[in-house]
Amino acid sequence: MKTTGIHHVAIICSNYEKSKKFYTEVLGFSIINETFRAARNSYKLDLQVGDNCQIELFSFPNPPQRVSKPEACGLRHLAFEVDDIENTVSDLQAQGVEVEDIRLDEITGKRFTFFQDPDALPLEIYER
């Protein structure tokens, strides 16, 4: 198999309006398409992340809880690349998002930190 990149990451949220606001207004991702699927009583929101990646944000009635701590088995976290980590942290904090202290990746020498989406999904910002 030969891939050319990651096309999208799918996220199921517990509160569609709250998560939509977080991903569009707080993180600034633009909406590609928003669809209400009546048969599933579900929304699907396609968001543009950078030039070549998307997030598919889904809502479903009463989704089951999932362990989301970074050390749980499965997807550990979702990381976004930024040019200026201090500026990004300031922007997030100004919008009421709690952000961990900035750390240094011992292997790459790059700076990074973590925060959470409205469903406590661990998100990372990683300086380019």
TrEMBL record:
Molecular function per GO: metal ion binding
InterPro entries: Fosfomycin_Res_Enzymes (IPR051332), Glyas_Bleomycin-R_OHBP_Dase (IPR029068), Glyas_Fos-R_dOase_dom (IPR004360), VOC_core (IPR037523), YwkD-like_dom (IPR037478)
Residue ranges occupied by any VOC domain in the UniProt entry: 5-128
Database matches in PROSITE patterns: VOC
Record keywords: Metal-binding
Superkingdom of the organism of origin: Bacteria
CDD domains for the chain: VOC_Bs_YwkD_like
Entries under Pfam families matching the protein: Glyoxalase
Name this polypeptide is given: VOC family protein
